[in-house]
């Protein structure tokens, strides 16, 4: 399975974009939009949008069966469940039962099946490739993440007003920011200004 390389470019509705690597594909997926106040970040407006997101590397799951409206609804339910579970784990709270139920239900479907190419040096996904299979694969990855050794490294960005969540896969385990060029640099700039303000 080619799900080890992660990260996507996120776009701010007010303008600007930055590369955010959540450290796990399922967490990257959790940042494709949302409910309530996060609805302005929605990128999965129609079934084809979901198919396009899933077809991008590293997953590269090109649908051989068109994504349905029902699968899009399931995708958004899984996305919200991953988001809720990740934030609960980052805050050291019990995982919401509803989120766990959604993740388990979607993981119960058949996942993607890897297939070695004829040249025996590359791999793809055995057809048919359906969105429901990809969602199952993402849900299973989230189960592995929550129950594995990196579970305690699921964190929310240390910025006061950034809700992005990630798993810190760095060796020292010292990652604090969604992205250094975004919240990390803002923090450095604020700290610098605060120091300068105290200089007589």
UniProtKB/TrEMBL annotation:
InterPro entries: ABATE, ABATE_dom_sf, Znf_CGNR. Pfam families: ABATE, zf-CGNR. Residues 153-196 form the Zinc finger CGNR domain. SUPFAM superfamilies: Jann2411-like. Transmembrane segments: none annotated. It comes from the Bacteria. Gene3D superfamilies: Jann2411-like domain. This is RNA-binding Zn ribbon-like protein. The lineage of its organism: Bacteria, Bacillati, Actinomycetota, Actinomycetes, Streptosporangiales.
